[in-house]
Amino acid sequence: MPQPRVFVTRRLPQEALDLLAAETELEVWPGDEHPPRDVLLSRARGCDAMLTTIEDRIDEELLAAGKGRLKVVANCAVGFDNVDLQSATQHGIAASNTPQVLTKTTADLAFALILAVARRVVEGDRDVRAGQWNHWRPFAYAGPDVHGSTLSILGMGQIGLEVAKRAFGFEMAVYYYDPIRRPEAERQYGVRFCHDLPSALKVADFVSVHTPLTPETRHMIGQKELRLMKPTAILVNTSRGPVVDNTALYEALRDGIIAGAGLDVTEPEPIPADHPLLSLSNVVITPHIGSASLATRTAMALLAARNILARLKGEDMPTCLNPEVLNR
Ligand code: DGY
C-alpha cells in the first residue's frame, strides 16, 4: 500500500520530520521562505496532510483544492487566524494548532518586552554601540519601575495566566479583561477581573495583549482605547498585530498619549524598515519570536506531526480544532 503523502511548508526541527518520515512519504519545502501559492495549491490537491505555519494562507480556495484527498492541516502555531476553520470543516478536513507547549515561552517574551521597554534596554544598547554613552547621568535612561506596578492582561487564556504568574514575582497588581470570567484564576492567583475594556486600560501601568485575532478583536486597541490609558503606560502585544491599530499606536506614542510599546507582532508583518513606528525610540519591536526557544519550537513541530499521524491512522488527534469532522 502506498504511504500517505505529507507536505511540510518549511524546514522544521528534525525530530518532527523524522517522526513523519518514518510513516509517510514526506516532502519538506526547502529553506526558510514559505512556498509560493501555486505550490501550496498543488500540494493541497496531491497530499493527504499538510504541516503549515502562520505565513501559509489556508483559505477556502486551498481547502476546496484539497477536498477529497487532504485529510488534515496541522498549523504549527497556537494561533490559527491563517486557517479558514469553517471551510476546513465544510470540506471534511481536520485542522489542528499547537496550544500549551508554547505558553510559558511566549509569556517569558511578553515579560521581556515589559522589562525592555520600561527599563529602556534596547535604547541603551543602541547608544552604547553607537559610542553615544559618554558619562553617567542621574536621569539618563530612567524609566518606570516594573516591580510594584499595575498590569492589565487583555485575554486571560493560558498565556495571559502565565504572564500574571510572572508579574506576581515582580509584586505587581494584576487585573484582567476577558469576555469569559475566570473565577478559578481569581481565587488561585488573585488576578482581578475588569468588567469592561476601558476599566482594564485606565487602571494599568502596563497593558499586555493576549487575545486571538478574530473579527471582534481586530483593532480592539485603537485611538479611543489608547486615550484611556495613562500617559505613563506601556502597551505590550505578543498576540497578533492587527489586534492593535498601528497607525493609532504610532500617533499615541509620538504625541505622548502613552509612554511606550513593546511589539512582537505588527500589522503588516514583517514590518517595513521605513514604518513610522520604527522611527520612535520608545518602541521595541521583535520579529514575532514569542515561541522562539529551541525546545518550544521543537515541541510545536512534534505536536503538529503527531496531529497529522493520528489523523492519518484514524486515532484521536491531540489538539484538533474541528473534531466534528473526525467521525464523518
Ligand atoms: C503562535 O503560535 O500563534 C505564534 O504566533 C507563532 O509561534
Architecture overview:
The structure is a single chain. The chain is α/β, with parallel strands linked by helices and 328 residues long. It has two domains: 127 residues, NAD(P)-binding Rossmann-like Domain (Rossmann fold, 3-Layer(aba) Sandwich), CATH 3.40.50.720; 183 residues, Rossmann fold. The strands form two sheets. A seven-stranded parallel sheet has the order 8-7-6-9-10-11-12, with helices on both faces. A five-stranded parallel sheet has the order 2-1-3-4-5, sandwiched between helices. Helix 1 links the parallel strand 1 and strand 2. Helix 1 runs parallel beside helix 12, helix 2 runs parallel beside helix 3 and helix 5 crosses helix 7. The model has no long low-confidence stretch (mean pLDDT 97). The site of (2R)-2,3-dihydroxypropanoic acid has 7 residues, from loops.
